[in-house]
UniProtKB/TrEMBL annotation:
Protein name (record): Gamma-glutamyl-gamma-aminobutyrate hydrolase family protein
Gene Ontology MF term list: hydrolase activity
Organism taxonomic ancestry: Bacteria, Pseudomonadati, Pseudomonadota, Alphaproteobacteria, Acetobacterales
InterPro entries membership: Class_I_gatase-like, Peptidase_C26, PuuD-like
Superkingdom of the source species: Bacteria
Keywords: Hydrolase
Residue spans crossing the bilayer: none
């Protein structure tokens, strides 16, 4: 029975290591609820190391790919802009590995689910661009770095009717958490499938793919019933 579970690759964060950290040497990490969300949806999660040269080989063994978020920014060079003080922290090793994994997954046609920073990288892959800082770009925007705990909702999003996301969650709006200072400006070839009340893009999708959805919030916290529906639909697509 276990062998029938679709194998879901989950990308990892990375830290350089040092005094007072988990290790004095470089280490990987992933929040446990990413893994448990995949398990609850019927998938078998596996953590993916940052080895761009092996991305195609890794993806050849997978049934689906989750690109996770993290406290860092996507290199603006990926969408044709110069980096400035609005983009303070890059993780080039991680970004390069995730970029190659997304490209390999899309080439193979397996489901891709981008979460928070994973959605932003997916947007760049699909020819889109980002706001390097929401507060600068959109005066009066919502506090997308919500002050309350991340396992609580920070704001609501409106789901665009007729999109794949709308079909999955079965609702016109969702209560979501929010932990980002950058956002998708132009979705490129992707379709916008949700927006926050201030107009910020909160979800994108590639309508030509079997499942290629990015969300700006963290559905692994299962705050809204639509979050569980998203993971269920992703794993179902991977099983198919």
């Amino acid at each position: 029975m276990t062998a029938s579970l679709p194998l879901i690759g989950v990308t990892l964060d990375q830290e350089p290591g040092g005094p007072g950290q988990y290790s004095a040497f470089p280490w990987y990490a992933v929040r446990a609820n990413y893994m448990s969300a995949v398990v609850k949806a019927g998938g078998l999660p596996v953590a993916l190391s940052h080895m761009p040269c092996l991305a195609a080989e890794v993806v050849s063994r997978l049934d689906g790919l989750v690109v996770t978020g993290g406290a860092f920014d996507i290199d603006p060079a990926l969408y044709g802009e110069a980096r400035d003080e609005r983009t303070p922290l890059l993780k080039p090793g991680r970004t390069q590995a995730e970029l190659k994994l997304i490209e390999a997954a899309r080439a193979r046609g397996i489901p891709v689910f981008g979460i928070c920073g994973g959605m932003q990288l997916l947007a760049a892959v699909l020819g889109g661009t980002l706001y390097q800082d929401i507060e600068v770009a959109i005066p009066g925007a919502l506090p997308h770095e919500q002050p309350n705990p991340r396992d609580e909702a920070g704001h609501c999003v409106s789901v665009v009717p007729g999109t794949r996301l709308a079909g999955i969650v079965g609702r016109a709006s969702m209560a979501v958490n929010s932990s980002h200072h950058q956002a998708v400006r132009d979705p490129g070839q992707a379709v916008v499938s949700a927006r926050a009340e201030d107009g910020v893009i909160e979800a994108i999708e590639d309508s030509e793919a079997v499942f290629c959805i990015g969300v700006q919030w963290h559905p692994e916290f299962s705050i809204d019933p639509g979050d569980r529906a998203l993971f269920a639909a992703f794993v179902a697509a991977a099983r198919g």
